[in-house]
Amino acid sequence: MNKVAKDYTQNIPHLPGVYVMRDSAANIIYIGKAKDLKNRITSYFHSDTDSKSFSIISAMKTINYILCSSEREAFLVERELIKKVQPYFNAMWKDDKSYPYIKLTNEDFPRLIMTRKVINDGSLYFGPYPQLTYIKKLIIWLNKIFKIRSCRTAFSEQNLPKKEKVKSCLYYHTGLCLGPCMGKISSEKYKNNLKETELFLKGKFKKLKTLWEKEMLIASNEQNYEKAGEIRDRLFAIEAMKQRVVISQISIEDINQYVLKTDSLQELKQVLKLKKLPAVMECFDISNTSGTNPVASMVRFVNGKPDKSGYRKFKIKTVDQINDFAMINEAVFRRYSGIIRRNEQFPDLVIIDGGKGQLAYAQKALDEIGIYLPLISLAKQEEEIFVVGKENSIRLPRNSLALRVLQAIRDEAHRFAITFHKSLRAKDFLPKKSL
Q: Which residues contact residue 400 at a Cβ distance below 8 angstroms, ignoring those fewer than 6 apart?
């Protein structure tokens, strides 16, 4: 076993149980059972795996496990949890015909493309994989490190494009392609280079690591440091795929809570008629005492749970009187204009603690920035939901899962704002140092 796998799995018991794999957003993507949890989970960290397992490994960020008293209990728990959660990979492998694959085309100079159809055309297919955005990023990365042609130009070794058509190709001149369209490399040599790509997509990391370590040593001895650096980066990429996984024990109740959170977000999506699940939500609140030490808070929930690394605090700078509307406007403007500057990801839903007035000023800030984000406000007294562009508010039943998750993020934003405001007030009461 490699050292990385040993470090991660040393505390897992040799007992039956169920393991739960999650992606970077904590979504459950696969549930499996095992007679021996340690052996099964460890197998995912072996240098060589099959193509199917590689699909999971490349997407997972966390592995949780549930201990069971017997193999039969593990089977029953697995079946129950799959039925409740319906993870992406479990569902996909029952009927994978409509899910995306990576295709290595059958041409003199093959390309990597995304497809949903697996046909008998001599091409190689890898997958299936999770969402399209992931596949696109993976293909771009593979094209870059293996210098695979990404153009759609149709040509063969015996029938190359006219030189004037391809002589200014940026991919070739920037070192991102080997220039097969210009006759710079033969079909045989090009395909031989692609064997490493095949090994990578099949999860044969052990073979690749051995091969690349030898190549890097040869390149270094020949003082070809540029090539040695490229190979070193490939080795780092393999290690990075293993080093990012967190493993921990959980209970069935944790899974039930996950299902509850997912149901609440589904209900919220339906109630607000959102285009996508509000997996990432951000909520704003204001706190001040008679206009002094005015602050705004912003808290972030991911999949219905606080993500404290995404919390933000704002000292209000442009408002010098009691005006909660203007303060909300400033906080929202600073937050999302900052996201644009830093090229960060926008939330799926923005929530304002307040009523129509606060909502209007928040929308004004988004208009000034020139962006659209789903935006609502939640008024405390009657727990009314106000939506931009709608005259009437939405009132959900008190036992509504959607309302509960909105209340949770609103109350957390309120708590965070008050805590920040109190800390600033406390500083005002500290004795000033004498000059």
A: 267
Distance, C-alpha 22 to centroid of its chain = 10
Type and span of the H or E element at 87 = none
CA dist., res. 350 & res. 200, Å (int): 40
Strand order in the sheet with 101-104: 112-115, 101-104, 124-126
Closest by Cα among 169, 98, 170, 165 to 128: 98
Quote the CA–CA distance of 320 and 81 in Å, as a whole number.
54
Q: What is the dihedral of CA 49, 51, 53, 56, to 10 degrees?
A: 130
The pTM for the full model equals 0.61
The H or E element spanning position 162 is none
- Closest Cα partner for 205 from 234, 167, 173? 234
Comparing CA positions, the residue from 363, 262, 322, 303 lying closest to residue 61 is: 303
- Backbone phi, then psi, for 67, in 5-degree steps? -75, 140
* pLDDT mean across residues, the chain: 85
For residue 162, what pLDDT band results from cuts at 50, 70 and 90? confident
Average pLDDT over residues 229-246: 70
1 CA to centre of own chain: 28
Both structure tokens of 435: 């000059």
Shortest CA distance to 53 belongs to which of 175, 155, 205?
205
Instruction: For residue range 19-40, list pLDDT tens digits in order.
Output: 999 887 788 999 999 999 999 9
- Give the residue among 20, 23, 25 at the shortest CA–CA distance from 277: 25
Residues 399-423 have a mean pLDDT of: 93
154: left (phi over 0), alpha (psi -120 to 50) or beta: beta
The type of residue at 254 is D
CA distance 92 to 82: 12
In this prediction, residue 435 carries a pLDDT of 46
CA-based end-to-end distance of the chain: 65
DSSP class per residue in 91-109: HHTTSGGGS-EEEE--SSS
Residues across the chain:
435
Check residue 245 and give its pLDDT: 64
Residues in contact with 175: Cβ distance below 8 Å, sequence separation at least 6, in sequence order = 147
Cβ atoms within 10 Å of 388's Cβ, excluding its own: 16
What is the rounded distance in angstroms from the CA atom of residue 34 to the CA atom of residue 341? 47
